[in-house]
From TrEMBL:
Organism: Chlorogloeopsis fritschii PCC 6912
Full protein name: Methyltransferase
Ubl conjugation listed as a keyword: no
Domain Methyltransferase: 41-149
CDD domains reported in the protein's UniProt record: AdoMet_MTases
Domain of life according to the entry: Bacteria
One Pfam match: Methyltransf_31
């Protein structure tokens, strides 16, 4: 991580439940995409910004004992949690590496598939990280990225607290020179680093019930200190918003449209 990169959300045990909910929402789309790009047994795979390892563990199961997954994150707390999750699944073809996405230290020209999800939006130099990922690929290897865009969410019936919650994230990412509209930038970034894109697609999850709906208030609570420190809001406003969104989330009278996700892949 460079000095000006700051991760907004909780890490380790504190953030694990939120990432699990996030994974429940997105994993069917991730699985479909990775199947489509040709993920198979025996592959050497790198998962960059792996978090608590939800996708990494699934990747390890797919590549099997003849394959290997190297999972990188800059947070030791995330990696400890990821290690515990992998041990619980008795996976022994996965290794966790504490490193920056800008300089992973992994061997270049070595991977069949390099993957990242919801990482680039947190970085101040996303193109440098994509360039590093490109370097890790063998010739003809595949780079797959999935990133969100916070600018096209909705709640119906409309909720000012819901809209404000996403405005806060966009404002903070602008202040920190990160990009929570990353989804729509991905194609340009891939082109900037000289990749010929095979496909770009998008999906927007809509949630009407269940614990998945809590993703919106849980993520707001995790980022509260960062918003307050940046002078964007007060604890009082956050507490009110969390309570209002939680009420919407526990009922079934609203539909949440959460950030649209861009899926992109290219061959080296
Ligand atoms: C939103 S989480 C996504 C985790 C995982 N990819 C998933 O989809 O469940 C983003 C992860 O990126 C990691 N991260 C942030 N900046 C990083 C950097 N510069 N290098 C490596 N990892 C970074 C964070 O520690 C966090 O675990």
């Amino acid at each position: 991580m460079t000095q000006d990169d700051r991760y907004t959300l909780a890490t380790g045990e504190l953030g694990a439940y939120r990432l699990e909910i996030l994974n429940r929402i997105h994993m069917p789309h991730t699985e479909f995409l990775l199947g489509r790009v040709g993920l198979r047994q025996g592959m050497q795979v790198a998962d960059i910004g792996c978090g608590t390892g939800n996708v990494s563990n699934w990747l390890a199961q797919q590549v099997g004992s003849s394959g290997l997954v190297l999972s990188v994150d800059s947070s030791s707390a995330q990696l400890q949690q990821a290690q515990r999750n992998a041990e619980a699944l008795t996976l022994n073809n996965i290794k966790f590496v504490e490193a920056s996405a800008y300089k992973t230290g992994l061997p270049y020209n070595s991977f069949d598939l390099v993957y990242c999800r919801f990482l680039l939006m947190h970085l101040t130099r996303p193109a440098d990280a994509v360039d590093e990922m490109r370097s890790l690929l063998k010739p003809n290897g595949v780079l797959v990225c999935e990133e969100a865009d916070f600018s096209c969410v909705f709640c119906d019936p409309p909720s000012p607290a819901y809209n404000r919650r996403f405005e806060l994230f966009l404002a903070l990412s602008d202040i920190r020179n990160q990009n929570f509209r990353m989804g729509i930038r991905l194609y340009r970034i891939f082109q900037e680093v000289g990749l010929t894109v095979s496909e770009v697609s998008m999906y927007q999850p809509t949630i009407i019930r269940g614990e998945e709906k809590r993703l919106v208030d849980l993520t707001l609570s995790e980022a509260a200190d960062a918003f307050i420190e940046a002078g964007l809001t007060t604890r009082e406003e956050i507490d009110k918003m969390v309570a209002q969104i939680k009420t919407l989330a526990t009922g079934e009278n609203t539909v949440f449209g959460i950030p649209r996700v861009t899926q992109i892949w290219a061959r080296k």
